[in-house]
TrEMBL record:
Organism whose genome encodes this protein: Ramphastos sulfuratus
Cell compartment(s), UniProt: Membrane
MF terms (GO), sorted A to Z: PDZ domain binding
Key words, A-Z: Membrane, Transmembrane, Transmembrane helix
Domain of life: Eukaryota
GO CC list: plasma membrane
Protein name (Swiss-Prot/TrEMBL): TMM88 protein
Family the entry assigns: Belongs to the TMEM88 family.
Length: 143
């Protein structure tokens, strides 16, 4: 049976809040994975820009003794060249984790707020943490 207007609004607010939390958890996981995987590129480009005379030209000892303008330029180019495969690797890692832990299936549809007695999506499939249970490998997150 349909919920009352106030109850429907309260449940909608709860579902929106839960979906926003799931979205930010996914975003945090994506940020952590990209930061870890792209760390070599970040370091190489940082040192290249820091030691180049036309950009920052740091007075650090390693800039004076090891890196001149041509080696700084080579570091910058190397950093941007290795960025593309690392982005692909980071996205593959995130997608495999999202699929393995069913992260995209944690979003709840708004129809749960309209009718009474409708079970939660994760409840119907055996609980919120399904790590210990067998998973259906045919289930797609985008279906």
């Amino acid at each position: 049976e349909p919920r009352s207007t106030c109850c429907c609004l309260a449940w909608t607010l709860m579902i929106v809040t839960m979906n926003i939390l799931v979205f930010f958890m996914n975003l945090l996981l994506l940020f952590v994975i990209f930061t870890i995987v792209l760390l070599p590129t970040i370091v190489v480009v940082y040192f290249g820009f820091q030691c180049h005379s036309k950009v920052l030209h740091s007075a650090a000892r390693y800039c004076r003794s090891f890196l001149d303008d041509s080696s700084s330029s080579a570091l910058i180019i190397l950093g941007f060249v290795i960025m593309s495969p690392l982005i692909v690797a980071a996205m593959a890692i995130y997608c495999s984790l999202a699929r393995r832990f069913h992260l995209l299936m944690c979003f709840q549809p708004y129809s749960r707020a309209v009718y009474k007695g409708v079970k939660w999506h994760w409840y119907e499939e055996g609980g919120l943490c399904r790590c210990a249970r067998g998973w259906n490998t045919q289930v797609k997150a985008w279906v």
